[in-house]
Amino acid sequence: MEYVNDFFEVGLLKWYEAAYSGISPDGIAWVQVPGEAHECLEDQLTCFEIKTRVADGTIEKAEKAC
User: Fold this and answer.
1) For 41-62, how does the pLDDT look when each residue is reduced to its tens digit (9 = 90+)?
2) For the CA atoms of 39, 43, 48, 50, what is the dihedral angle to 10 degrees?
């Protein structure tokens, strides 16, 4: 999407100050928040979870909620 500036696939990410604390996103990305109200903001670092379509009913419910 046009607001994604960079995307990186990652594995386990740990906080260097607390090695017992970690997350496992599918990727991280630098994004620009879309919309005119946010055009002056710096890029934001975000985590991504990529889901596969396993149950059409669940996906349809999520898509309708947006």
Assistant:
1) 778 888 888 777 666 677 777 7
2) 50
Structure tokens at 42: 């710096």
Beta strand pairing status for 27-31 and 4-9?
antiparallel
Structural domain boundaries, residue 19: 4-65
pTM for this prediction: 0.54
Integer Cα distance of 26 and 9 in angstroms? 6
Tell me the CA end-to-end span of the chain in Å, nearest whole number.
Answer: 17
Read off the tokens for 18: 């607390």
H helices present in the chain, as ranges: 56-65
The 10s digit of each residue's pLDDT in 15-29 is: 888 878 888 888 899
Domain count, the chain: 1
